[in-house]
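Sanity check

After download, print the first record. It should look like this:
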Amino acid sequence: MKEKTLVSTFTLIGSLASYYYAKTHVKDAVPYVMIGGFVGAWVGEIIAQVTVRKNKEDEK
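Expected structure tokens:
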């Protein structure tokens, strides 16, 4: 899977999960979506880096 796709997917998942949390707990969704998207992008970047690094090691 491409690095951009991983990051985008985790950003979307983080944003949607935090939106769902905010709506079920009757809170303003905007700050939660922003934080959830940031955390999701961060997790996606970490997973992408680990995957790319592992693929490079496997090629050797």
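If your output differs, re-run the checksum step. Summary of this record's structure: The chain has two helices and no strands.
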